[in-house]
Amino acid sequence: MNQTNVSKSILERLTDEWGSLTPEAQKAARYVLENPADVGVSTVREIAEAANVKPNTFVRMARQVGFEGYEDFRAPFREAIRKGGVSFPDRARWLQDIRKSGEIGGLYADMIGAAARNIEETFAAISEEALKAAAEAIWSSRQVFTLGVGVNNANARNFTYLASTGMTQFHAIPRPGSTPVDDLAWADGQDVLIAMTMKPYRSEVVEAVRIARDQGVTVIAISDSPASPISLAAQHSFVVAVDTPQFFPSSVSSIALLETLLSFVISVASDEIVERVETFHRRRHQLGIYQEDPE
């Protein structure tokens, strides 16, 4: 995902029109959704070649979402580049100093830089209104199911654990010995599913989201692309940057987003939740779960 300050409205229009686009136009739209910064610096021929479609496909796609042609579509992206982004010269110098320490220093700098970029790109593309809307859906629901497999299973369980300090009826799925679709068997319009998957998308997560929607469940998707199958199917969708110099995708931005989402849930909740969190931790102190400081 490339960072851009382009208004989300254009990208949202692409996802809204996704179902009516031809397969070739969807390829063009997918490239724009995943590489928005490229739009402002590429001619229609250049971006068509990168997306592996014909130039006319981009023209038709632009018209489909209300623009006269590709140049009209590209204008807001070029304006965003002209205005410029945030600069971090001190961080850049810090990373350069680390890199000078040799091969391991270079790896260290690359990992730090990727983690910082992922956080910046993720939150630059997410509005507080979108987070608030998702938080309100969570708070007003009967049950919340948090779904992740592989590394995202740990992220789902961490979110559920933190939420349980002040709220009940949060479930990390799949449960041991179960499957996501079985865990959602009795979920309906009173419930929320938070689903996470990144490329290559896990089929059991995609299928669970599809079934949840059929059952009326409100879906909150966390994925690495607005064109991912769970993002397109969700009522609330958040895109996280997962790039890393190593072979595994980064979870840094996913964890940060989940923690932020939970803080929004607490902010929209009733005053009761603050008392519940305090009671939970007071009980832990009383049971000796926490190591107390010597007097």
Automatic annotation (TrEMBL):
Whether Transcription regulation counts among this entry's keywords is: yes
What are the recorded Gene Ontology BP terms? carbohydrate derivative metabolic process
Signal peptide limits: none
Superkingdom of this entry's organism? Bacteria
Looking up InterPro entries in the UniProt record yields: Homeodomain-like_sf, HTH_RpiR, RpiR-like, RpiR-like_SIS, SIS_dom, SIS_dom_sf, WH-like_DNA-bd_sf
Query: Its Gene Ontology molecular function terms?
Result: carbohydrate derivative binding; DNA binding; DNA-binding transcription factor activity
Give residue ranges for domain HTH rpiR-type.
Answer: 8-84
SIS domain spans which residues?
134-279
Q: What is the lineage of its organism?
A: Bacteria, Pseudomonadati, Pseudomonadota, Alphaproteobacteria, Rhodobacterales
Write the protein's name.
Answer: MurR/RpiR family transcriptional regulator
Which species expresses this protein natively? Roseovarius bejariae
List the keywords (alphabetical): DNA-binding, Transcription, Transcription regulation
